[in-house]
Automatic annotation (TrEMBL):
<dbReference type="InterPro" id="IPR052713">
    <property type="entry name" value="FeoA"/>
</dbReference>
<dbReference type="GO" id="GO:0046914">
    <property type="term" value="F:transition metal ion binding"/>
</dbReference>
<dbReference type="InterPro" id="IPR008988">
    <property type="entry name" value="Transcriptional_repressor_C"/>
</dbReference>
<dbReference type="InterPro" id="IPR038157">
    <property type="entry name" value="FeoA_core_dom"/>
</dbReference>
<keyword id="KW-0408">Iron</keyword>
<dbReference type="Pfam" id="PF04023">
    <property type="entry name" value="FeoA"/>
</dbReference>
<protein>
    <submittedName>
        <fullName>Ferrous iron transport protein A</fullName>
    </submittedName>
</protein>
<dbReference type="InterPro" id="IPR007167">
    <property type="entry name" value="Fe-transptr_FeoA-like"/>
</dbReference>
<feature type="domain" description="Ferrous iron transporter FeoA-like">
    <location>
        <begin position="1"/>
        <end position="72"/>
    </location>
</feature>
Length: 79
């Protein structure tokens, strides 16, 4: 599942980040495999999305979020 597929309020664990021009920036901001990410807000037209990871909140283009692979924690129900 991709980070871009999640809806506002959903949480997931980052499993992988595809190699792209923003990979290094994402990793510097705490988007590392194993970290919990929360979709804080989604713009009215669906782009960008605001996420929270390791205490940081920032906006991310949906195209860049599509490069982040996530999984829903086992036994966890999202909003």
């Amino acid at each position: 599942m991709k980070l871009s597929d999640l809806k506002q309020g959903q949480e997931a664990i980052i499993t992988e980040i595809e190699d792209s021009s923003v990979t290094e920036q994402l990793m510097e901001m705490g988007c590392l495999p194993g970290e919990l990410v929360v979709i804080e807000n989604v713009a009215p037209m669906g782009d960008p999305i605001a996420i929270s990871v390791v205490g940081y909140k920032f906006s991310l283009r949906k195209a860049d979020a599509a490069k982040v692979e996530v999984k829903i924690p086992a036994g966890y129900t999202n909003a």
